Protein 1
Amino acid sequence: MANQYKFSFGPWNIHCGADPFGPVVRDELSFDEKLTFYRKLGFEGVQFHDDDAVPDLNELTPQQVANRAKAVKKQLEDHGLEAEFVAPRLWEDPRTIDGAYTANDPQHREYALERSRRTIDIANALETDLVVLWLAREGTYIRESKDSKKAVDLLVQAINAMLDYEPHMRFAIEPKPNEPMDQAFIPTTGHAIGLAYLCNDPSRVGVNIESAHAILAGLDPSDEMGYALAHNKLWTVHLNDQNGLKFDEDKTFGSVDIRRAFNQVRILETYNYGQNGEYVGLDVKAMRTQKSGVSSKHLINSRRIFLRLVDLVRSLDEQHTQDLIKQRDYEELDFVILNHLMGG
Ligand code: GLO
Ligand code: MG
């Protein structure tokens, strides 16, 4: 059942458990070892940061970057996998301390663009037409350090430059309201889609919606998805869960609020998400307490919870639901949904 969905995650989702307060607690795995997990766990799509595919790319010529990425494409094929997207990692280099496309220093902005061109080259070599832009440091710690109107202009200029650089590449913005910044310039799906319409080719600018990011913005992830679906701009998702307003937790999908997860699956299922090749992407972290050898359960479990919820969406008595809506008996509808989720 429900096998029309294809699943993906990024290699950073198998990690050694370091956090800002403590070192690694599990064995480091090589990229190739991580690739051996995908098929076994039921995944066929790999999400990449540019340097997951080509480490140290700043030290290489564009031609060397492209050649190394082609070797990774072969590696993927050997494992029966494909690349879903590539994302420029624009938050670790000293030149991105004050942001990337919105950095106050024009040389730093130029670095961000040049790095993004390499990301696009890598996407081409990996044969995917999707680049994800998580605008990690495009925001402020204090209001007075940047001009928010100018920041939007700079983001549009940067995306236009990327659209021009590769005329068949699509760009999915991943909004997030905070962390690492205090305030992000593009905090929600609405902001991301507004930005898309300011660009030269809005048809190639869409979104990647992460459940936890929507929750951190005080929004319901399924409503954010509905908004993007109405604009035909939901090109990938980062499903996970989040326990309230704190650091970005990237918990197993559905592990905090199963009803909230059900409603995300329901809107995806209702509008045939995946019919144009979109992946069900995860962005989940294993708990730091998990030992080596059993540290991929968050991935297996997120996937199986998604599929269990697909079954629940499909087995919901739609006629009964519609009758209750007609009668405006939302108290009964509330119970029917909860009872269904509890196996009733
Ligand atoms: C962090 C983001 C991050 C991105 C990834 C892809 O909060 O969710 O994990 O999804 O870097 O760009
Ligand atoms: Mg994410």
Protein 2
Amino acid sequence: MQFFLDSAITSEIEYALDTFNIDGITTNPRHVQVSGKPFLSVIREIARLVEGTEKTVSVEVNPHFMTYAEMLPEAEKLAAISPNFVIKLQCVEPAFKVIEALAKKDIRTNCTLIFSPMQALQAMRSGAYFISPFIGWKEANGEDVQNFIDDIVTIRDNYDFDSEIIVAAVRNARQIVDMAVLGADIVTAGLSVYQEGVQHPYTVDGIQRFTKFWDQTPYDEA
Ligand code: E4P
């Protein structure tokens, strides 16, 4: 399973690349706003961090754009900035034709804000490179997310669609493991989710115990 970082904060991205060797980055308008930098500046900075690698950076088209005529040129403009960019388009009717048109030009897309298997199916039929079903928002609303993702994985495999499934809005390690069991390709989460996920109180306890024994034992030279 690939781990993506969901962030537009360059220091976090650098840390996650270095420490977790994250496989890609996803941004959205909230992350860009939180970065405190203008949109184009920050996505260019992020592009530089992954330059020369295969790691993707998902960048989102202006969410006001709701027509083919608005979305397509903006998507092409963003794609021209970096070969690492995958263009994020909201899952709305006009986006499907944009996704198809971009696929024909070898521009990769990430169909985002997916909350039902039907939306996922249509995005995959259109040729989305990534699809992003959000689980955190659904789970916070008491909705089942296991069947949601299981259905999407089954549909993708039944029809051999090329789209990769990025499970998004992931909030904790339990969700990551659940999604790995279901066979989702990728998860995207904030840095703290990965940091908390690799911690365990028994590990901390074990380090304390072993340190005590270590300190009672001579090291010696061969
Ligand atoms: C995915 O690509 C989105 O950026 C992300 O997971 C959205 O979730 P959040 O803003 O609720 O964390």
